[in-house]
Amino acid sequence: MSVLFILISASLIIAIGFLVAFIWSVKSGQYDDDYTPSVRMLFDDELTANKTEIKKSIKD
What we know:
Helix content is 83%, strand content 0%. By secondary structure, it is mainly alpha-helical.
């Protein structure tokens, strides 16, 4: 029976640790940018194309 109390207290400590880490990450701005990832795939080809054009113009 004492093992059950140890397991419950350990799981509560771990859960509280994850809750504190989540609250800290939200307050530090970890989840602020929710727009850029949705449009990043739209501009990826343009950036690659611009890099190859720049390399070609440097060689010429």
